[in-house]
């Protein structure tokens, strides 16, 4: 039986840092702080070429505290004593954000519709423990293309895409990774314990499949059950306000465009 979908919000900045601090190929992943023990999420920091680093924070959208602000959590994260020295003297080049479909194999819906098919991360093929979805996106695109070619040649439907997905390595990989994300429904520490069991002992061959619980929006509590979170004001050096980051994202649209939303 298919489960509900669950999502996360990812925020990223690209910095150009001092050459003496740059280590091409170095990777850093963290979990927890600045998030609380009941909120799933973590950071990434990748040293790229040309003195650039990609740094970001991913926050699951089933957080309990309605006052939690993923953007402000990321700004706070950059002030950590293990991160701030790396960025000191550097310059922000670009900002971006996106939603991640983290449901995994439990949440994949039938991806074929009349005249088309859903592929990649839109279909839910992200491998959460690997924090990677480009390989499954490319493979699913290849399978969809083969199904489309067969459909045009033989006049059949695209349902063969769904059939070949189930027999491909995509399905096998997502099945072995299925319990990592829902493990954190029980909190960060229990989630880490379950993931260790999955990774080092069971190796994805668990006799059980964990569920995601409730939809993300239902997981958020009433405001009266929590206290507002006081986030520090941006200093303009390591942390920035939303308009500044929005400008760096190069997002642009026609301000005089008629509203397309109809209520």
TrEMBL record:
Catalytic activity: a ubiquinone + reduced [electron-transfer flavoprotein] = a ubiquinol + oxidized [electron-transfer flavoprotein] + H(+)
InterPro entries: ETF-QO (IPR040156), ETF-QO/FixC_UQ-bd (IPR049398), FAD/NAD-bd_sf (IPR036188)
Catalytic activity, EC: 1.5.5.1
GO CC entries: mitochondrial inner membrane
Necessary cofactors: FAD; [4Fe-4S] cluster
Iron in keyword set: yes
GO molecular function annotations of the record: 4 iron, 4 sulfur cluster binding; electron-transferring-flavoprotein dehydrogenase activity; metal ion binding
Record carries keyword Membrane: no
Residue ranges the record marks as coiled coil: none
Cofactor note: Binds 1 [4Fe-4S] cluster.
Record-annotated ETF-QO/FixC ubiquinone-binding domain positions: 7-100
Role description: Accepts electrons from ETF and reduces ubiquinone.
Name by which UniProt lists this protein: Electron transfer flavoprotein-ubiquinone oxidoreductase
Organism of origin: Populus alba x Populus x berolinensis
């Amino acid at each position: 039986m298919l489960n509900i979908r669950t999502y996360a919000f990812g925020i990223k900045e690209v910095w150009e840092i001092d050459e003496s601090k740059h280590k091409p190929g170095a990777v850093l992943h963290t979990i927890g702080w600045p998030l609380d023990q009941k909120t799933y999420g973590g950071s990434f920091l990748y040293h790229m070429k040309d003195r650039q680093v990609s740094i970001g924070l991913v926050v699951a959208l089933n957080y309990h505290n309605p006052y939690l602000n993923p953007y402000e959590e990321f700004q706070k994260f950059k002030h950590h004593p293990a991160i701030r020295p790396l960025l000191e003297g550097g310059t922000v080049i670009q900002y971006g954000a996106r939603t991640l479909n983290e449901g995994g194999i439990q949440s994949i819906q039938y991806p074929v519709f009349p005249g088309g098919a859903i592929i990649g991360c839109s279909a839910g093929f992200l491998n959460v423990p690997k924090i990677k979805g480009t390989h499954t996106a490319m493979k699913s695109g290849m399978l969809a293309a083969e199904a489309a070619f067969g459909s045009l040649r033989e006049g059949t439907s695209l349902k063969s895409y769904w059939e070949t997905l189930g027999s491909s390595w995509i399905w096998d990989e997502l099945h072995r990774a299925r319990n990592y994300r829902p493990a954190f429904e029980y909190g960060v520490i229990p989630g880490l314990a379950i993931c260790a069991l999955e990774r080092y002992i069971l190796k994805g061959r668990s006799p059980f499949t964990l569920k995601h619980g409730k939809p993300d929006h239902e997981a958020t509590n009433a405001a009266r059950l929590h206290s507002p979170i006081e986030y520090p004001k941006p200093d303009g050096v390591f942390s920035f306000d939303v308009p500044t980051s929005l400008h760096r994202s190069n997002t642009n649209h026609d301000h005089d465009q008629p509203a397309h939303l109809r209520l």
